[in-house]
Amino acid sequence: MRWFRNASVVAVAVAATLGLAACGGSDSGDKPAAQGKGGAPIVVASFNFTDSQILAEIYAQALEAKGYPVTRKLNLGSRELIYPSLKSGELQFIPEYQGAAITTGFGKEAGKTAAEEHDQLAKLFEPSGVGLLNFAPAEDKNTYIIKSDLAKDKGIASISDLKKLDKVIMAGPPECEKRLPCYLGFKDVYKLTNISFQTIQEAGPRVEQLKSGAVTVIPVDSVSPLTGDSKYTVLKDDLNIVPTENVVPAVNKKVLDERGADFATAVNAVSAKLTTDVMRDLNKKVDSDGEQAADVAKDWLAQAGL
Question: Phi, psi (5° rounding) for residue 222?
Answer without folding.
Answer: -65, -15
